[in-house]
Backbone:
């Protein structure tokens, strides 16, 4: 049974203060969570490495149903695992099957809810002649996953050109949306919250159909990473997007190879917090669009090198390759690896797709791997201290507490 909203509020408040997942999921031991994540990783590899699916794969989860459910939620894999169980792709026992079926049911209902909201927003944009590109999950869920509900989404991501950002905000305001904080220092990204969104998630153990969501409005495909490092692919005119027909409406989405480059860049930029479903997403995109198309990989490398974003795509694509060997051609892997800073290569070599997300234990090297040299790291730390001394001090004190409790390490764990 899902906790009530007061319990959710208390759990979130405690977790925000301590950073300890035990406050999010009381009674769930770290070893049980990790065992469940490892089992999800093994099942995912088995399915992805057998794309023809000659017969059902036996999945004997040793984890308790609750541990599996929380790990399925944290990894974003719950609905897809539920789909595989429902369609006979994998065979699970009734107890674990019931947990995964609930994830799938909520995934389907939430996908319908967000798709309806997307339609209303795009209609509002069309009335003001504002073209937009649909980004990330609300595109890939419909085009690459077996059904939309198998790829959870927390928000609706839309891209407009910078000169249309104000008009797009006005269109959202006319629909009753409330503007949240601006998410980029240059004002190129904004959050807009619908009038009926709840203040708190309904559950902390499943992506619930009624959980909060918002419109993430982008005017650029750039992102600011740790220490103020900013990179990406700049602005993109929606008129250059691929036209996609869905539900009687024409959408525009990113073309290849920009789509893969953006997804990999986005997944890498959240490496220590991003769910495993993002690496599965990359595998599905590569298999459908890049298989036996070396010329598209050449264009991908040209784009990545031209925008200096190749090194930022490396971590996510390397982890996707470990889920499904052969997804990334060997020569592409070599070139991406050469573009990455030495520390990033060392960190990624120690990570697993199901273990990159650092919930229980955090490592410093994952956080500083974006810097190409120690001199660069020191310069960026000095800049951060000058810009936000109080915030930095609070962050470092919190990290010191984690280090004392054994929840923060210097190196990422395998």
Residues:
């Amino acid at each position: 049974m899902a906790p009530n909203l007061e319990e959710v509020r208390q759990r979130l408040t405690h977790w925000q203060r301590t950073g300890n997942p035990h406050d999010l999921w009381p009674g769930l031991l770290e070893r049980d969570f990790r065992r469940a994540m490892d089992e999800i990783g093994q099942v995912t590899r088995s399915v992805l490495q057998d794309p023809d699916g000659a017969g059902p794969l036996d999945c004997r989860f040793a984890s308790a149903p609750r541990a599996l459910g929380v790990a399925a939620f944290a990894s974003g894999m719950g609905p897809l695992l539920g789909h595989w169980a429902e369609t006979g792709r994998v065979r699970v026992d009734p107890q674990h099957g019931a947990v995964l079926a609930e994830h799938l049911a909520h995934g389907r209902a939430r996908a319908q809810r967000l798709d309806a909201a997307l339609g209303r927003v795009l209609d509002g944009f069309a009335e003001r002649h504002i073209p937009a590109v649909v980004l990330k999950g609300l595109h890939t869920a419909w085009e690459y996953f077996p059904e939309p509900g198998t790829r959870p989404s927390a928000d609706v991501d839309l891209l407009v050109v910078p000169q249309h950002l104000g008009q797009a905000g006005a269109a959202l305001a006319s629909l009753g949306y409330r503007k949240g904080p601006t998410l980029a220092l240059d004002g190129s990204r904004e959050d807009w919250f619908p009038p009926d969104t709840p203040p708190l998630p309904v559950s902390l153990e499943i992506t619930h159909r009624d959980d909060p969501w918002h419109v993430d409005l982008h005017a650029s495909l750039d992102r600011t990473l740790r220490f103020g490092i900013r990179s990406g692919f700049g602005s993109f005119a929606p008129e250059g997007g691929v036209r996609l027909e869905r539900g009687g409406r024409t959408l525009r989405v990113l073309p290849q190879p920009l789509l893969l480059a953006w997804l990999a860049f986005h997944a890498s930029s959240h490496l220590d917090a991003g769910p495993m479903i993002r690496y599965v997403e990359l595998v599905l995109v590569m298999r459908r669009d890049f298989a036996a198309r070396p010329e598209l990989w050449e264009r991908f490398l040209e784009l990545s090198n031209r925008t200096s974003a190749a090194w930022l795509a490396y971590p996510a694509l390397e982890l996707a390759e470990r889920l499904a060997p052969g997804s990334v051609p060997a020569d592409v892997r070599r070139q991406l690896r050469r573009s990455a800073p030495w520390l990033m290569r060392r960190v990624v070599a120690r990570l697993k797709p199901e273990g990159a997300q650092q919930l229980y234990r955090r490592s410093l090297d994952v956080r500083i791997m974006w810097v190409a040299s120690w001199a660069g790291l020191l310069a960026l730390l000095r800049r951060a201290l000058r810009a936000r001394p109080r915030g930095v001090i609070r962050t470092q004190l919190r990290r010191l507490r984690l280090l004392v409790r054994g929840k923060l390490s210097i190196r990422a764990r395998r």
